[in-house]
Design goal:
TIM Barrel, 37% helix
Amino acid sequence: MSNPCIICVAITGSLPRKANNPAVPITVNEQIESTHEAFEAGATIVHAHVRNDDETPSSDPEKFARLQEGIRKHCPGMIMQMSTGGRSGAGQARGGMLPLSPDMASLSVGSNNFPTRVYENPPDLVDWLASEMRTYGVKPEIEAFDLSHIFQGAAMHADGRIPDTPYVQFVMGVKNAMPIDENVFDFYIQTVKRLLPDSPWCAAGIGAGQYTINEWSVRKGGHCRTGLEDNVRLDRDRLAPSNAALVQRVVELCERYERPVATWQSARDILGLPLKD
């Protein structure tokens, strides 16, 4: 019971709500409410995107600011992690919210295939995003869609582009990218321990494999990401009624494997994140 599990909730994806799940929060107020429910269920990190009025992904810093303000008010202590991924815009617009100084931001350090396009993360953009995170005191979460991304994250840490202790997330299950494979998962863990021995890690499973990745992560000593951005179903026949319901599944896994769910205080201690005003 000495290894708390941090639960991250990814509250909203990029698909239109009607094509996805009516429970997916779209507006800033909906996202704040959904995050509060997930926080009360046990999540201590919120991974956040924002949407335009037509539900398409947005990089609008004003909406990120309102979201952060609401989450800090209603979920005191929760770790705010903003997405700089390709869904949030193109080029440096992807980092337009970093001057808001959130606790964390996602950092994809290499490119890979997505279902219908290439997810482009050119080196100059990666370096610029990392520089902005250093400038505004934002901790990167290294998004590892591929084994090479762990190596790249370690290189960026070694030369100072990623300071302090890195946090690495394995992303598995994206069509045309890394499938959900336990042998690969174990090798990812070994690689992080070899290249970044002091770094905590977490994992996200996309689609139907979300619960499988949650279970592997809890059982093998890592941290977990869940939420309606990655998966909209409890099982093949049932849509998830909320982000909180998906968080509760991870809480139950923690109980099964005798791991305490990290409080926001212990999550900040593990990640080295002071509480911001």
